[in-house]
Design goal:
The protein has about 280 residues and is of the alpha+beta class. It has a domain at about 5-120: DNA double-strand break repair and VJ recombination XRCC4, N-terminal (Dna Repair Protein Xrcc4, Chain: A, domain 1). It has seven helices and eight strands, in the order ββββαααββββαααα. It has a five-stranded antiparallel β-sheet with strand order 1-2-3-4-8. It has a three-stranded antiparallel β-sheet with strand order 5-6-7.
Length: about 280
């Protein structure tokens, strides 16, 4: 015998406690053997693979879903599963059926015929032994889980200590950075104030000049400035005589009337005097 033995409640006989044991090779979809006892009598039953498939087809549900329901009703679950699944036993027909509540409606998942065992005491003894064996295995597994839980608690406590240490380091670093930031900020504020104090007199002077503009002097008028510049330029020019040819080359116009009268007449007189003197010279020769 393998597997676990569990206590079930039968709705048709609520005052009696029944013990159910299910044994299967691979999984419930391949069929299973069932043993039922009330502590005095014992019964056995079998469900084949074909019967499992037929029940799934009758309910029109997938095989996986139907096998999951069989797992819950036969192998057990929690208190909630007891409310959803139930058993009915007919001792007259020796038939056990198992049901599931769906929207307050009881749906039959399956049933099997039971047959009495010739030696119920031996079968009950086997069921008790299997229960003790399963209890021992569960106890060992529970001890392993407790040890692992203790290790996890120790690791958790160590992690909490490290976390607290990191939090303290973080708070210390935050305070140091804040102190350094405040120091730098105060230095910047002091520097800004000194710059503002240095710039404020100039700003006040400019403000006063805008509010009280100084009237310009007469010597500073545009005409006076232009005359001064022209005179300065004329004083810088060299002084030398300019001939008529130079004036023409420089683009200046000449008064030819005055120049011809003044220059030609003296030259004509000198020529005439020379002509007058030439005959006397010949006579002397």
């Amino acid at each position: 015998m393998s597997g676990a033995v569990r206590q079930i409640d039968v709705t048709t006989d609520p005052g009696t406690h029944y013990f159910l044991h299910v044994d299967f090779a691979v999984n419930l979809s391949c069929g299973f053997n069932l043993t039922l006892s009330d502590g005095i009598s014992a019964w056995k039953g079998e469900v084949s693979e074909n019967e499992v498939k037929r029940e799934a087809n009758v309910m029109e549900v997938p095989m996986e879903s139907y096998v999951e329901d069989l797992q819950q009703v036969l192998m057990g679950g929690g208190q909630k599963r007891r409310e959803i699944y139930s058993f009915r036993l007919d001792l007259d027909c020796l038939q056990l059926s198992y049901h599931k509540m769906c929207d307050h409606v009881s749906v039959r998942l399956g049933s099997l015929k039971l047959r009495p065992t010739p030696d119920p005491v031996l079968l009950i003894r086997e069921m008790i032994g299997q229960s003790l064996k399963h209890s021992t295995e569960m106890e060992k597994e529970n001890l392993l889980l407790l040890e692992e839980n203790c290790k996890l608690k120790e690791e958790h406590a160590q992690i909490l200590k490290e976390l607290e240490h990191h939090v303290q380091d973080k708070e210390t670093m935050t305070r140091e950075l804040y102190t350094h930031f405040v120091t730098v900020l105060n230095e910047k504020k002091t520097r800004i104030r000194s710059l503002q104090d240095a710039v404020r007199p100039c700003a006040n002077v400019q403000k006063k000049q805008r509010e009280n503009p100084v009237p310009p002097d007469e010597d500073d008028s545009p005409d006076t400035i232009t005359e001064t510049v022209q005179s300065s330029y004329s004083s810088l020019e060299p002084t030398f005589p300019i001939t008529g040819h130079d004036q023409v080359s420089q683009g200046f116009s000449l008064d030819h009337t005055m120049s011809l009268d003044e220059n030609v007449q003296p030259r004509w007189k000198s020529t005439q005097s020379i002509d007058d003197q030439s005959p006397g010279t010949t006579e002397m020769e």
